[in-house]
Design goal:
The protein has helices spanning 3-6, 8-24, 32-67, 77-100, 102-112, 119-122, 129-136, 138-143, 147-160, 175-178, 182-188, 206-211, 234-251, 255-263, 296-319, 325-347, 352-370, 377-399. The chain is mainly alpha-helical. Residues 401-408 have low confidence and may be disordered. The protein binds zinc ion (2 copies).
């Protein structure tokens, strides 16, 4: 059972609560476009997880069946505690290596791209992290922790980390010594040189204290990555660091350096390209966040379309198990294309509006012809969405200036 998907309503409730607190405190914790991008990345990562999970989990199952050293009873409280402790320890190393090895950072960087820090950022996850993380947890299979126990504990560790992504909670006294907290995880999301690659713990922060990667929060961090993404597109968010690495590999003269780039630390460059590039100092006042300006009508359209896409995506996560493969992958493609279009519209990209109109026009006959979703209200919903899109498109072409370049 994927408990993370079951918790989606709780996530949205707590995001609502944080928005309310921000309003009361007169603070800007959220930006609409940034949150759309965060949730878009979260949904894309869940869709990819559905595609990959069975094959990735096969490794754990196989090792458990063939190589386990102990028969661990499912009903023992000590076994559950041991599994959680073991998982959290291995999570620390997975997370730390995700920051220290370029190929792993390319998958994890997505979680760090937001220049905001709020509960929506917690849901911003890299689509390909699962392809890296499963290897780190194999020792638990060899020890003999039953697969269902492992999966449950893994969900618990992930769920715990949701609440620590907030600026609304200050320091928590002695808890800061033991647990990952909002304060010490804010540090983890900072791009200030002294905060980079610190505080990787999942539930326990003691691993960072033990292995020398702990730093307490001093001034509030400047959030994000050293070379900002400057995009709301969730697919580009997952690919941009690979594009960056391929560009560097092309420019490197020696073949050995091209390969080394994959395993080197982020920031490392071969000597012929200038050697290691340390993270630059940041001045909070002089570091404007990425912002785009689209016409209000277009923004509203993108937001409505985004909500519909999130609803269809959530339906996919709950129900896809009972759908035939063609339905499953058509819906997933429709959702991903919708998220990309929303990002493009908010960035004011010229391709976004025609692409969005094409997506919805293609969806109508597809859904009707194949009865792909086996739900009578679904074609109606999609037809309504298409009508809305085409209406917005006409409104856009007829009354709003065509030039919606992103204002950077
Ligand atoms: Zn991280
Ligand atoms: Zn985080």
């Amino acid at each position: 059972m994927n408990y993370v998907v079951l918790a989606v309503p709780v996530f949205f409730l707590l995001i609502g609560l944080e928005l309310l607190i921000a309003r009361l405190q007169e603070k800007d914790y959220y930006s609409l476009s940034d949150s759309v991008a965060d949730l878009g990345c979260g949904l894309v990562s869940q869709l990819v997880e559905v595609a990959l999970k069975t094959s990735l989990f096969a490794g754990y199952l196989l090792l458990y069946q063939r190589c386990r050293q102990f028969e661990i009873p499912v009903h023992s409280v000590a076994a559950w505690a041991g599994c959680l402790l073991g998982y959290d320890f291995l999570y620390y190393w997975f997370h730390r290596k995700s920051h220290e090895v370029n190929a792993f950072w390319a998958a994890h960087v997505v979680h760090h791209q937001s220049e905001e820090y709020n509960l929506a950022v917690a849901l911003r996850q890299g689509a390909f992290q699962g392809a890296v993380s499963w290897v780190f947890y194999l020792p638990l299979a060899v020890i003999g922790f039953p697969p269902l126990m492992f999966l449950t504990v893994s969900s618990l560790d992930t769920l715990y980390q949701f609440w620590i992504h907030t600026r609304a909670i200050g320091r928590l006294g002695p808890l800061e010594w033991v647990l990952s907290t909002p304060s010490n995880h804010r540090v983890h999301h900072g791009r200030n040189p002294k905060y980079i690659d610190r505080n990787h713990g999942g539930i326990l922060i003691v691993w960072d204290r033990l292995f020398g990667t702990y730093v307490a929060e001093q001034e509030e961090p400047v959030y994000g990555i050293t070379t900002p993404l400057r995009s709301w597109n969730p697919v580009w968010a997952n690919l941009h660091y690979w594009a960056d690495l391929i560009g560097k590999a092309r420019r490197a003269a020696r073949p050995a350096d091209k390969l080394r780039l994959l395993l080197a630390r982020p920031g490392w460059l071969p000597a012929d390209l200038g050697g290691f590039q340390p993270a630059p100092e940041v001045d909070p006042a002089g570091t404007p966040k990425f912002m785009t300006s689209a016409p209000a009508g277009l923004k509203a359209y993108a937001f409505v379309q985004f909500l519909i896409t999130i609803a269809v995506g959530t339906l996919f996560l709950f129900r896809q198990g009972s759908w035939p493969p063609a339905t499953r992958w058509t819906t997933a493609a429709f959702v991903v294309a919708g998220l990309v279009a929303c990002g493009g519209l908010l960035e004011g990209r010229r391709w976004a509006a025609p692409a969005e109109a094409a997506r919805l026009t293609a969806a109508v006959p597809l859904v009707h012809a194949a009865d792909v979703l086996h739900a009578s209200w679904m074609p109606a919903l999609i037809t309504a969405t298409a009508a809305l899109a085409i209406g917005a498109w006409l409104w856009r072409v007829a009354w709003v200036s065509v030039d919606t370049r992103a204002l950077e």
